Every structure is written in C-alpha cells, then in structure tokens.
Amino acid sequence: MSQAVLHQIFAGLATGGIYASLALALVMIYQATHLVNFAQGEMAMFCTYIAWSLLQTGMGYWPAFLLTVGFGFVLGVVIERVVIRPVERSSVLSVVVVFIGLLAILNSVAGWIYTYTIKPFPSPFPEALANPLMSPHELGSILVTLVVLVLLYAFFRFTPLGLAMRAAAQNPESSRLVGIRVGWMLALGWGLASAIGAVAGMMIAPVVYLDPNMMGGILLYAFAAALLGGIDNPGGAVLGGFIMGVLENLLGAFVIGNDLKLALALVLIVGVLVVRPSGLFGSVQVSRV
Amino acid sequence: MSAANGMLLQVRGLHAAYGATRVLHGIDFGMASGSVTALLGANGAGKTTTLRALCGMVKTVGEVSFEGRRIETRATEDVVRQGIAHVPDGRGTFAHLTTEENLRLGAYTRKDKARVHEDIERMYGYFPRLRERRRQQAGTLSGGEQQMLAVSRALMLRPKLLLLDEPSFGLAPLVVQELFAILRAINRAEQVTMLVVEQNAALALEVADHAYVLETGRVVLSGTAQEIKSDDAVRRSYLGY
Known about the structure:
The structure holds 2 protein chains of 2 kinds.
Chain A: H1 3-33, H2 40-56, H3 61-84, H4 92-114, H5 136-158, H6 160-170, H7 172-177, H8 182-208, H9 215-229, H10 234-254, H11 261-275
Chain B: E1 7-18, E2 21-32, E3 36-40, H1 47-54, E4 59-66, E5 69-70, H2 76-81, E6 84-87, H3 99-106, H4 113-126, H5 128-132, H6 143-155, E7 161-165, H7 173-190, E8 193-197, H8 201-207, E9 210-215, E10 218-224, H9 225-230, H10 232-239
Parallel strand pairs in B: 3-8, 3-9, 6-7, 7-8
Antiparallel strand pairs in B: 1-2, 1-4, 4-5, 9-10
Helix pairs in contact in B: 3-6
C-alpha cells in the first residue's frame, strides 16, 4: 500500500478515536434513557472552552486537561439533575425538545462568552512522537482515546459501581430492589458521558479549531458511528467510530473529495437504518406479545 | 432489635392503589421473627400488591413496622437497606448480566464485602446448576434456573425478611419441590423470615407456619397453616383444592 493510503488510514484512526469516544458517550446515555442526546457535542464544546480559559491563565496543559474532565463530569451530573430529571417521564418528544434546547443554549452561551471568532487550540503532544505515518497529535490522540476506553471498560467491568450503573440502565426496578439508587446512577452516567465528551473535544479542537459550532459535524459522525456499531452496544459503537474515521478519510482523500465527507455520515446513517437498523453488533429487540 | 410484641413485621390498615384503582382496602397482618407466612388467594386478590406495598413500590396509606420502625414512607432502595429482600413477580433478574454479576448485585448494599464471595459459594452449594452457569448471561438460563438465581440474588442481601412472589410460577413440579425444600432449609438454618405469595396453596401450606387468605384486597381468613389446611370448608371456598 502506498504511503499516502497508509497515512490516510492512520489519520482516520486518530479522528475515528474521537468519534468512537463521542459515540460511546451517546451509547451510555442511550442505554439509560433510550434517547440520543443531541446536546452531547455542545457539552463537549463548552468543556473545551473551559480548557481554553484555564490554559489562558497560564496553567499547564495536563492540569487544565484534568480539571476540564472534572468540570465535564460535574456539568453532566448537574444537567441530568436539573434539566433532564424533571422531564424523565415525559413523552419522547418533550425530552428531544429539551435536548435540542440544551444544544441551542450551550451553543449561544459559548458564543456570548467567547465570541464566534475561531481560536486555535494547542496540542499537548511533543514532536518526539512524530513518525512517517502520523503527526504527533494524531498518534497522541489515538493513545488518549485508548486510555479512556480501557479505563471505562475496567470501570464498568470490574468495579461494583460500574456493575450497579449497568444494572440501573438495564432494569431500574430490579436495581431498586437490590438497593441501587437508580436516579444517582443515571446522573453518574451523564457525568461520565460528559467527561468523555470533554476529552473528545480537547482532542479534536487542535484539528478543527475552537469555535461554538465545532462539534456539529463531529457529533454527526459519532451518531453515524454509534448507529453503525449498534446504538445499544458500547464495543460496537467504539469500533463503528474507528471504521467511520478511516472510511471518511479514505473516501474523502481518494474518492468523493473533502466537500462531500459530511454527506457520507448522512448516507451511512440512512443506509444503516434501512439495511440493518440494529447496527453491526446491536441486539435485535424482540418482544413477546 | 425486635418490636415489643415480638413481631418482625407488623402491618396495620394498609391501603394501596395503582392510580385510581384501589387494590388493598386496609389489611392487617403480622409476622413473627423466623416464621414462614403464606399469603394466599385468587388472582387479583392483592397478594403481589401487598409485597410491592411493603417495599415502597406502590402508593400506600397505612402503617408498616419492621423491627419496630415505620418503613411505609421509605423508598424501595432504603427498605432494602433495612434487610428486606424481594423476589418479585417475573423474577426480576438482570437478563444481560451474568449469573455471578446478578449475585454480586444482590449484595450491593452490604458492608462486609469480604464475605460476599463466601456467600456466592454458598448459593452455588444450594443450587449447583448456577455454578455451571456462572459466566452465562442470566437471560439465557432456563425458567427454573432463573428462579433459583432470583432467590439466590435475594439471599445475597442476607435479609432478615425474604418476600417471595410466586416462586413456583412456571416451574416443573420436581423443580418446585427442590426449591421449596431449599427455602425451608434456609429458613431453619439461617432464621430468615419469609413471606410467600402463592397460587399453589397446598404447596405453600406445606412450608408455612401461618397463612393469611386475601380476597379482593382484604384479609378474610388467618390462622396457622395446620388450621387452614384441615378446614375443608375453608379449603374449598378459598383455596380451591
């Protein structure tokens, strides 16, 4: 394979990792609420602005990174408690309207505070990571994504809290019967999803630059990735993210050109919904009547 | 710490409703510590609702005292923390989690984490089939195995009171015999008080010390299992066998 193709594949894996993280955040909320959080991208964008503000104060990158992840977590928990909880039992449509409202509010508040001027955002990865196939930032963000994924996997797989969160998302009534505080588990889920989004935002900002609308396209890719992998399957969503990233880059570079890349996400979304609505690895819901 | 009258659970004037539909119309009953009590009655008599009311899963009016403390206003997850485990209608297993994860969740509120593993082994001792299925998703277990898992999951709390909703439902007669024998053994060995809801009255009266018969949300009859079993008129009119 030519160097150019290889380079596109690796660059695709780098952005794919970001789609994968965001797709995972979508899946986590979906598993608990059966709804797609349209505001996930704007939450990530807002967190990235917080990181930018912290960096402006002269703080080092990694302390600012960790603080932002913490902020993202708190933001998610607060949004769940304050905005989502009151409408939890309402119709799907009302919740979707709340999600869209959140998207609009976060977008305009960011624009109001930080203006719509595009800002550069630094990459923390040293030139030492440079290699023939990938830029330091591409390699670095793949590594960060992998660390996030491994930590999350370990958390859900091996800790009692992770187990309780999975249980609460699956079967709230039985969870209460074993003493799990289901409401708080949902809030924690939002916090984690939002924290993952914050990481994704900080990793993509050096590539797409920082502005209030930076996550629009990214969220669309993440949504396509989640659907491709199966919206109820975390592992599938992650794989879908990487596939999406590579596909987008290869087709964009050699077949359809950069202008049509976003359309690719839409084609994929429609395609999956028509051909295989449960995605590659999603479970087919069968219910006895 | 038991209440003054030696009762573990005391229910007075319990009403319950689903929306506008009233299901319980002021029922009273008590359970002595270490006893097995059967709650009998036809479909729709309010047996399942009674169990749900004890756990704060349905809106109630009335008084529920457990170990002398009022619990009727507590949330389900706090009632569980008092030591009340519930094997609900339809088993309530976590279908997508493994057998062992289901058992671990049963002990979620326990502080003595070190002994949880020991108790999981104890459950495998009672129900060896579960050990074979430990890494399998609970949803793939047979009905009987899922019922064993549901009971084990509840016992993992080390409850003082175990509420069982139709444990025989949908099980082969042999499995039912096995399950009830184990329940009886657990009651004797560990002094776990049990409240069993059953449509299969003959079976429930075999293991119970006391029984209450419900009819359309009221207690119409109560007595020792022996009394109720031996009264032919009662058996025919209320228990249908």
